[in-house]
Model the fold of this input.
Amino acid sequence: MSTRTTPFPRTAVLGAGSMGFAIIQGLLAAGAAEVSATCASSQRAELLRSRADNGLNVVPVEEHPDANRRVVADAELVVVAVKPKYVPAVLADIADVLPAGATVISVAAGITVSQLHEAVPGHGVIRAMPNTPALVGRGVTGVVLPDDLDEATKRLAREVVATLGAVVEIREEQIDALSAVSGSGPAYFYLFVEQLTEAARRLGFDEPTARRLVEDTFIGSAVLLEKGEASPQELRRQVTSPGGTTMEAVAVFETGAWADLAERAYQAAIEKARRLV
Ligand SMILES: NC(=O)c1ccc[n+]([C@@H]2O[C@H](COP(=O)([O-])OP(=O)(O)OC[C@H]3O[C@@H](n4cnc5c(N)ncnc54)[C@H](OP(=O)(O)O)[C@@H]3O)[C@@H](O)[C@H]2O)c1
Done:
């Protein structure tokens, strides 16, 4: 819930897809009253209007080729959430109508602070890297707050990304590593859930039962972890009696050299991110 004493500024979200809509939902839930958004298609615009019932103004590019220019024209905050390949064109399109003093937050992977500065000179720019649990307000977002921002703008940026869940402030050179850990992280988690569910099925459980057993084990374990009363090591120790069955299973998992595997997986994501720039 927002602790703002002043209203959220007029905000334009360019590209109300998965992440853009998560941001819109977060802003509206935190009390933002004046949010406009763009998307490419009329179909997406209809869906957005039906999902956001508190007066979200959605302008699709399909109907209004100048949609992005329209919504930023009176915006104090602009969130750029189109796919990275569209960011240069979208920023070039809006640069001359962006009001003086408007701040730009980009969630686009691989688009650097200096690229943002070049595209919208004279404006405060922020880079943020959320992850998909942001869709339910439980994401973790890495945010880069360049030194040239004033304190009020930094505070605003922190408040905006906090509507998506937890916030971690990072230096820009850490963003690829953050993306490898938390940006892509939900995929690793779901992969593990899929594999354990498949293995449970091979033990003879039907699909709904296997899913229930695995998914509720993850969710319940995550809630215990979130309570913060014990470390992951301690929680694991509580299940792993010396000489017991869990110990046998954990020993088998450890033959997979997980620490090494995790590091190699992170490195692969980081190297790919560097090749994309
Ligand atoms: N998804 C993630 O896990 C994640 C995590 C971190 C960062 N991000 C970043 O978030 C951004 C969006 O990713 P996403 O997964 O949300 O993609 P997405 O669901 O495809 O959303 C992109 C949206 O942009 C709209 N769009 C396309 N061209 C446009 C234009 N010229 N003007 C305005 N809107 C336009 C699309 O409209 P239509 O729907 O009508 O085609 C779509 O709704 C990317 O830059 C990505 O790097 C995503």
Observations:
- The CA atoms of residues 142 and 178 lie 7 Å apart.
- Residues 207-227 form the longest helix (21 residues).
- The two ends are 36 Å apart (CA to CA).
